[in-house]
Amino acid sequence: MPKSNSIIAIGAGNVASHFIPALHAIGFNIIQVYSRTLSNAQTLARKVKAKAIDDLEAIDHDAEWYLIMVKDDAIKSVLNQLPELNQKQFLAHTSGATPTTLLGKKAENFGSFYALQTFKKGHPANLKQTPFFVYGNNEKTQRLFRITARKISKKVTECSDIDRLKYHISAVFINNFVNHLACVANDYLIQNALDPSMLDPIRKKTFNNILNNDPCQIQTGPAVRNDEKLEKKHLALLKMHPELKKVYKALSSSIKAKYEDS
Ligand SMILES: NC(=O)c1ccc[n+]([C@@H]2O[C@H](COP(=O)([O-])OP(=O)(O)OC[C@H]3O[C@@H](n4cnc5c(N)ncnc54)[C@H](OP(=O)(O)O)[C@@H]3O)[C@@H](O)[C@H]2O)c1
Fold it and tell me: Which CATH number characterizes residue 187's domain?
């Protein structure tokens, strides 16, 4: 019989550092925190009165819930080292992109506990306002994940693997790609001995515009105006930055395709 309301945290990274204290705060007993780096497991374990482990052989077999929060490409190998779970135990991962069916080889009750937000260890997160997408392969699993997520967040949706993957792709566009563009814009100015803080007002305006409008309606710039002369001038200046040139061309081409008939 598993210990009721108990969780084993598998992973002690960005997501675990926010999810595990939140699960502890709503009454779960965090039995163990696993990380391949003991000091990472210890740091998180201390906050939730759990035991830190760095070897999956030492994992407690009697927890109710095993929550995998490791890098996507480590999920399979971690899974292979987990014990077979019984019909009273639950297994979930927090990945946007990994199919939950993978978890079926170790558990009868499995699913996903995914949040559509960017998390960094040590940076604050507002879980109450974060959309959670949960999935369970049967009613009792779906119920456990849904009820738990609702205690953490006001925005909980049940979501299939394929729809979660689609949300994940859109998050890559709005977060990862936009953030990368902000990063290369800074780098470009620094490399040219110019001041990136000059971008502060346009950075603020850009994000306000996105939040307060339909972004498809407010596109500006040479690509949407189809100003090829100006594009050539920019590309000539980017001659020494081949990666930036590729990004410039790819995004310009995407903007043109979107607006060509308007
Ligand atoms: N971060 C986000 O914004 C975010 C948002 C939603 C969903 N997710 C998903 O949540 C999961 C965890 O993401 P994360 O950002 O928390 O990851 P992370 O901080 O990069 O790493 C999480 C954990 O994975 C462990 N790990 C890495 N490689 C490993 C390996 N080969 N074997 C065993 N453990 C390994 C790390 O170990 P160490 O402690 O030793 O470094 C760490 O404890 C991923 O599936 C990710 O896609 C992330």
Answer: 1.10.1040.20
